[in-house]
Amino acid sequence: MSAISCTDLCKYYQQGDAVIKGLDHVSLDIEQGSFICLSGPSGSGKTTLLNTIGGLDSLDNGEISIDGERVDLLGKSALADLRLFRIGFVFQSYNLIPVLSARENVEFVMQVQGVSAIERKQRSLRILKEVGLEGMEDRRPAQLSGGQQQRVAVARAIVSQPKLVLADEPTANLDSQSMKKLMAHFRELNLTHKVTFLIATHDQRVMAWADRHIIMEDGRVISDELQQTS
Amino acid sequence: MALPVRAMSILAWRNLWRNYRRTLIMLLAIVLGVWAMIFMTALLRGMVDDMVKQGITALPGHVQVHAAAYRDDPSVTHSMPAPEEKLLDVLNGHLVKAWAGRVSVPAMISSEYENRGVSLLGVDSEAELALGFKPDDILEGRFLSGSDDRGIVIGRKLMQRLETRLGKRVVLMSQDPDNSIAERGFKIVGIFKAELESREENFVYAGRDVVQEMLGLGTGISEIAVLGHDYQAPQALSLNIRAAVPGGHEVLTWLELDPYLATMMRVMNGFVLVWMVVIFLALSFGLVNTLMMAIFERVREIGLMRALGMRPSAIVYQILVESVMLLLLGLLVGNLMAIATIIPLKDGIDISAVSQGMEMMGASSMLFPVLLWPDLLLANGVVIVLGIITSLLPAWRAAQYRPVEALSRT
């Protein structure tokens, strides 16, 4: 059984008299431990697909199952629990809580999960070190650069080791060195903990890390190929 | 799943101070509202308290014992014997602060120029002082020296009406038990003042033995006035006395003797609650507006928290914590300010400029604010409970945002 199964997903947006097809009959099966890149031009449906799989957005048609559980049928609280315990999000714009420090932002999800204070501290310090933010733990988002904020957001997404990470342009604000480090970290998690990664990106360098590459256009999947990783 | 209380408290506290100007303005409104609730309630309580105490002094006592028909016809025919052993045990017990057996009959007082109807009070001066007659109220002359004092003490207003003065003689006329005229001349030995002019005009004090002799009452009295320790709870005292008096007597608390005052006290409790709720309603608009603004500014963050796995109920909780923090801060400062305003006024506020109006309500020309713990608790309770209820609307609104829409807000 696939870790994620998407069948005939449709999502439409009304814009004046025109209907925009966010997702147009998209079907996908994703195995546990996959490392997938989604690419395509702006407005092709990459973010919409990530949002619907993560239960952030509703569908007009179709079914999504994660580990056999129908996401599209879950209520608000059940969806919240699914996102809390099984999915890590990295958003296009870093989306950090401005009144919390880098460490507190990373710890936030664990706090909601009920992880003990000692463990939270250990895990958050370790992950911040891994993403190259050692010594910046107590800085607020406004005191960090765009790239640093993105790394905090990545640390927050993976710190509680979710089964699935949905990342929307995670390397958009990173220099080449940081991008490599981040992708290596993603890959390591993927290989050692069988974490599934679904990464929407325009970045060719990121695509090279993926073992499956899906290309979207006008809400449709126009290409879905396995590839050799570099 | 348990709510991350600590995390939410930290978030709420920091969020409060993101727009510190708005928070401070709202805080000021809450502080003023709480201050107004407590301070005005203390003034109102003080006024009603004074009215009740004045009323009790005029009665006098918290509990009175009469012959059964005395209140319908307060004449000597409805007198009763002096208290005996069983009743004396209760009257001298721990529930009683002071008591007095008094003669109180309607009488006519005449000077050389005028005459007026009054209540003639035959009293034991020592017991009367213990009941609440203040020596300071004697303007001229002296109070009675004992129950066998042959002088009379009249009020300042009555003296003016009778066109008489200290040292002059007046004649008191009433009925004896045989319905014959009983009269006697008295020398005015003292002039008293009272907070209420009606008391100065309607009551005269004479020695009890002398009045009993004049009316042919023997040792009979009209009433026993009993002062307990707490005017707000005279029922226990009343029950004890009722168990000790013989049949044919009625034992009434001041609440029954003066229903107007009793109603005033009950209405006051309701009025205080209405007053507090009205103030809070005015405040609540500001509170809802503040929270709404805070939420509109943070739609994206609320969307983020939902996206990260916070349930809608946790969002509601988060907003409520923020509101409660604001309310608690306001309550703390408001309470302190109210207490700091009331304490310096403990010696009273002179409102003699409106004394005539106050007298019509039975209150004196000095207003003593009364701060009661239950009022303080009520004010705090109203603010917290209604504050939380009021905050539910913005909190609910915040919880309704769909994560994907909230995250797309700029």
Q: Which key features would you list for this structure?
A:
heterodimer; A: Rossmann fold; 6-stranded mixed β-sheet; 4-stranded antiparallel β-sheet; 7 helices; 35% helix; B: alpha+beta; 2 domains; 6-stranded mixed beta barrel; 15 helices
How would you summarize the topology of this molecule?
The complex is a heterodimer of chains A (230) and B (410).
Chain A lengths: L3 E12 L2 E13 L4 E5 L6 H8 L7 E6 L2 E2 L5 H11 E4 L11 H12 L3 H14 L15 H13 L5 E5 L7 H18 L2 E5 L3 H4 L4 E6 L2 E7 L4
Parallel strand pairs in A: 3-8, 3-9, 6-7, 7-8
Antiparallel strand pairs in A: 1-2, 1-4, 4-5, 9-10
Helix pairs in contact in A: 3-4, 3-5
Chain B lengths: L4 H12 L3 H39 L4 E5 L17 H7 L6 E13 L4 E9 L1 H7 L6 E4 L9 E5 H7 L6 E7 L5 E12 L4 H6 E5 H8 L7 E5 L7 H10 L4 E5 H4 L1 H39 L1 H9 L4 H31 L6 E2 L4 H6 L5 E2 L5 H28 L2 H6 L2
Parallel strand pairs in B: 3-8, 5-7
Antiparallel strand pairs in B: 1-9, 1-10, 2-3, 2-6, 2-9, 4-7, 5-8, 6-7, 11-12
Helix pairs in contact in B: 1-12, 2-10, 2-12, 2-14, 10-14, 12-14
Care to describe what's here?
The complex is a heterodimer of chains A (230) and B (410). Chain A has one domain: P-loop containing nucleotide triphosphate hydrolases (Rossmann fold, 3-Layer(aba) Sandwich), CATH 3.40.50. Chain A is built from seven helices and ten strands. The model of chain A has no long low-confidence stretch (mean pLDDT 89). Chain A is globular, with a radius of gyration of 17 Å. By secondary structure, chain B is an alpha+beta fold. Chain B folds into two domains: 198 residues, no CATH class; 194 residues, no CATH class. In chain B, 53% of the residues lie in helices and 18% in strands. Chain B is built from 15 helices and twelve strands. Chain B has a six-stranded mixed beta barrel. Chain B has a two-stranded antiparallel ribbon with strand order 11-12. In chain B, strand 2 and strand 3 form a beta hairpin.
